[in-house]
Amino acid sequence: MKRLFLGASLVATSLFLFTGCKENKRTSMEPGKTNGATGLSYGDKKTDGYKAESFAGQPAAPNMVFIEGGRFTMGTVAEDITFTRDNLERTVTVASFYMDEAEISNIDYLFYLYNIQSDSTSEFYESALPDTTVWQNYMSFNDQYVDHYLRYPGFRMYPVVGVSWIQASDYATWRSAAVNNSLAQGGGEKKKGISFGKKKKAEEGLAEAAPVSDGGRKAIESGTVLPNYRLPTEAEWEYAAKAMIGTQYNDENQANQRIYPWDGSSLRQDGGRDKGMMMANFKRGRGDYAGIAGRLNDQNIITAEVYSFEPNDFGLYNMAGNVNEWVYDLYRPGSYQDFNDLNPIRRNDYQDEDGMYDSKNYNSLIDNNQRVYKGGSWADVAYWLSPGTRRYIDQDSSTATIGFRCAMISVGAPGKKKM
Questions:
Q1: If phi over 0 gives left and psi between -120 and 50 gives alpha, with beta otherwise, what is residue 244?
Q2: Distance (Å, rounded) from C-alpha 359 to C-alpha 396?
Q3: Which residues have a Cβ under 8 Å from the Cβ of 202 and sit 6 or more positions away?
Q4: CB 345, CB 329: distance < 8 Å
Q5: What is each CA distance from 162 to 98, 199, 261, 282, 301, in whole angstroms?
Q6: Nearest CA to 404 among 102, 147, 43?
Q7: Residue 111 · residue 150 · CB < 8 Å
Q8: Cα–Cα dist 280/297, whole Å
Q9: Given CA atoms 113, 118, 122, 124 in this order, what sign does their dihedral have?
């Protein structure tokens, strides 16, 4: 009997120790009051020492949608009608991140211009102004958009255009400072200015803090600041556009590949009251931008409001059509050959120097200023709506068909705080 009792006691003690260890398991959100590796106490408001600030998760970023990372097949799945063969299929993995649910609108950009006009140098403000002359065409009467598209209230929620890659990158940098300044002040409007000095070079500002918030940003260790806004990489953008999560079934099986950000090869709604209507804003054919009066099929002759059409399975609007979108990557035709299969990106002069391309003698358009844009636009045919297609243009150029949206790294569990 004594042995039985002793055995039961040992089992109970073992269970207690085992469950106790599990309950005390440290996590990033609950690291404990003492350092696990040394047993020494962390500092607090009253005592000196390293402080493990309380952390409730990454603060929620305005307008952003969480994109769960994973494996996907990157590259062109449709016929390569341009015969460039610059984006052949390859399997890569993308880490979880956040992305704007909609394109940056005119009112978003006007808000930016208003703030930097009062807080920044006139040189920088002028460099940030969109090129409204991108609407000019001597063979087309688009003069009305030159004056009205950016500033007329009726166009507030239309995507901003006429913005270069450099301007879009500068906007992302300013946005990082503006939102973090608001978080530091407890939300609402900022109480102190966010100023820019001289215009930054193209590669600067994405990782470095070009804007300076008066008083400085809270320490990153506090966990109360957001990571920097930035342009998405080409892999991130394509992964988010395809939204293959919508084809996920049991285990790791996916029923099909996607040509567009929705299932099937059709560009039209296959049922419901909108049956037969287009699922994106694009050019249907020569001279046909929307259909006939009384039955305008995609509802828009030029751009559409940023929340038009149905979102994809990640909750992102207009990842096909409306406007093309800038991505971070430098353009290289051989991006599919030399790449890292985790979070791939193409940077300046790595394994594919621009000296290999004869741009000085105009035998090539490729140099270190060419940036990728994706997604298709209101003026593009359906081929360019496929997420795997890609084009490029000089980072200082702008057109009436290119806009942008921002992305942000996801760190740990997302927080519940709303702004």
A1: alpha
A2: 16
A3: 165, 166, 169, 369, 395, 396
A4: yes
A5: 25, 18, 25, 18, 18
A6: 102
A7: no
A8: 10
A9: negative
Tokens (6 digits) for 385 = 């709506």
CB 382 within 8 A of CB 282: yes
Residue 211 structure tokens? 């804007």
Q: What are the φ/ψ torsions at residue 17 (nearest 5 degrees)?
A: -65, -40
Find which of 27-36, 65-74, 164-173, 347-356 is predicted with most confidence, using mean pLDDT.
Answer: 164-173
What residues form DSSP beta bridges with 194? 213
Tell me the C-alpha distance between 417 and 62, whole Å. 11
Tokens for 131, please give them: 């090129």
167 vs 15, more confident: 167
Cβ contact 181:192 at 8 Å? yes
* Residue predicted with more confidence, 397 or 270: 397
Q: Which two tokens stand for residue 335?
A: 């991006």
What CA–CA distance (Å, rounded) separates 219 from 208? 15
Average of per-residue pLDDT values in the chain: 83
pLDDT at 224: 80
